[in-house]
Amino acid sequence: MKAIYPGSFDPITLGHLDIIERAAKIFSEVYIVVMENKRKKYTFSLDERIEMIKESTKHIKNIKIDCFKGLLIDYVKKNNIDVVIRGLRAVTDFEYELQMAMANKEMCPNVDTIFLMTDKKFSFLSSSLVKEVAYFGGDISSWVPKNVEKKLITLFNENKGGVDI
Ligand code: ADP
What we know:
The chain is of the alpha/beta class and 165 residues long. The relative contact order is 0.20. 43% of the residues lie in helices and 19% in strands. A five-stranded parallel sheet has the order 3-2-1-4-5, sandwiched between helices. The protein has one domain: Rossmann fold, CATH 3.40.50.620. Adenosine-5'-diphosphate binds at residues 7-9, 13, 15-16, 19, 86-87, 89, 93, 118, 122, 125-127.
């Protein structure tokens, strides 16, 4: 069965990576798709976000990394994907995720959304938190892959004050 794990991945964290590794054990093929939404502001460009995912997931064989600007279900239909994977951290994620899952089901009845619970050690972790802490020079080494840590440190050293987080 083919699954898709869509997200902003701005940037990928160890919480995302944990979901990717677990999904890759369950499904024969997992598409990691970096979504670009014109109404959202990102810290990293689409290419940078893809590159960081590629670097961090070299050890996982049955994944495909891609990007998409548009409705998730259009990508899902075009690629004959069976399942959408999303991660759940806390109750606060639930309402939005339930709404999206129901809307997607309404638009594309053949596709189901499956939620993987966060590992408890990553339950507080988000891309925004990582950026906030990195911005102020805090230690993020146990929250993101090494390549992402380097990228964030460089970004904030070079552009202090001029970056959207
Ligand atoms: P989006 O803008 O689509 O929410 P994110 O990159 O923030 O994109 O998140 C993508 C998915 O990964 C979401 O389902 C989110 O709940 C999940 N996720 C993010 N961080 C974690 C984490 N620490 N543990 C488990 N799932 C996570």
